[in-house]
Write a structure and sequence with these properties.
single chain, Rossmann fold, alpha/beta, seven-stranded mixed sheet, 2 domains
Amino acid sequence: MKIAVPKERAPGERRVALVPEIVAKFVKGGHVVTVERGAGTSAGYLDAAYESAGATIAPDTRVAYGDADVIVRVAKPSDAELDGIRRGTVLIGFLAPLGDPRSVERYAERGITALSMETVPRTSKAQAMDALSSQANIGGYKAALLAANHLPKFFPMLTTAAGTIQPAKALIIGAGVAGLQAIATCRRLGAVVTAYDTRPVVAEQVKSLGAKFLEIDVGESGEGQGGYAKELSPEALAKQRAGMVKAIGASDVVITTAAIPGKRAPILVTAEAVAAMAPGSVIVDLAAETGGNVEGTKPGEVVTSANGVTIVGLLNLASDLAYDASRLYARNVQALLDYITKDGALALDPDDEIVAGTTITRDGQIVHEPTRAALTGGAA
């Protein structure tokens, strides 16, 4: 099997799809790996390391693609980057099928078999392939560090000759993978942490990390399919927003992580809630890439509200820790490729749960039902 790794060209993307450690494993298994020159440089992996691992270094993307059977990427390719990909090639990456369903049409038109890392089923069998979780974990960690950096206070309690400094109060909204890591990191930094989630089932996880679970009765559960949160009704969302104003106003730091697959992020922190916070307080909006959970978030920017609250809407936080983010992502990709490879060749069984859930296009057709529904305006 011939595997190609192109250089990422999306703005701000520093990660690389495969690292030398994983390349060496593929080469040892009898596969041929071609890496575009400089593909790993931004993540801290030099061409020499790939060559030592057994990879061939290609001078550009077109040569890297060549006669590849599989192309592994981080971000979805632009139209220009699709040039040179042969029909029947398997494309693996964060392809944003629900965020940009029109791009999926182009994969189908070109006869590309596209596997999206966002849609890997969240089952125990597919846990090692779950790139969304591996990268969200990094985002939650980075969010806590950004909050500590912008907050004009200490996170931990400090007792000094000049008196005692009280610990910062942090509220984490959304206790998925990113939220749980944000909780753990804020706790390690010494903050007093409270967390909220619409799924009561995560309360024990929150408490196990030493945080308090904020309970707000919205009249329904936010538990969705496959371990994801679902969208609340307008009535429940209104109750949630109202119930959180007091908790948000009492916090020095708020980190929001709530996202609904394929939809705009719900607004959870209203302008009223921002106004209730003290000057100098910080909000880190991890949902900025899909519009943000906070009224006042500007995706890609750090802004200050009228009452002096810093709102951090920076994007792709995992890319800031590109070295380890790439290592984790590469292991996810390896697990997926190992799963769909039999006797050294690709074997995509459409009846397999993981293959079916991950495959977006095949044989010139869009086979991912939620994407087809998004394109036609229907419900999945």
